[in-house]
Amino acid sequence: MAQKYYHARLMSEQTVIDSLEFARAGQELRGSLPVTRLMRLQDCLFDADGSVQFVVRGGRDDERRPTLAVEISGLLHLQCQRCLEVLEYTLRLSNTLLLVRQGEDLSANAEDPEAADCIEASPETDVAALIEDEILLSLPFAPRHTDDSCRSVVDKSQREVEKSSAFAKLAGLKNLKQ
Ligand SMILES: [Zn+2]
Fold it and tell me: Distance from the CA of 3 to the center of ligand 1, in angstroms?
C-alpha cells in the first residue's frame, strides 16, 4: 500500500487532519512546533525558548479500532518550584490515542486504568492542539532541581554555614569575656 507522506512546514501551514481518514490510510505527519506557537503550554513554562518535534502516525489497535500514535520530543524550560529559576526539562513521550466517534460512551473505558487514552475523531483535528494537550498532560506537577543543583538548597546550606560560623564567633567572644 502506498503510504501518503506529509512533511509539514508548520510555521505557516495548517495542521488540521481528518483523523479517521488519517488512521484508516495509515498516514504519517511529522514536523516541529516552536514553543511560541503553543500558548497554553507557554503559560506553564519559564520562557518560550525552543521547539518540540513530533510524529503522528495513523493506524489501528489490536481490535482494529482507529488510532493515532504520537511521539514528541524537545527541550523545555520549566520553572523550579523551589528556587523559581529555570529548569531544563527533556521532553520525550509517546502515546497511542484511540479515536472515538462524537458522543460515544467512554465510561467503560474511563474506569479501566489500562485502557488507551481516547480523543474524539473529527474531520478537523488540529494536530498542534493535540500535541500541546499531550505535552501538558505529561509535564511534572511541581518540577524541582535536584538538591545539588537547586539554588535555594545551595543558598540555604551556604547561609547555615555562615550562621554557624557567626555563632562560633559569638561563642568565642563570650568565652573571652568570661
Ligand atoms: Zn531550583
Answer: 47
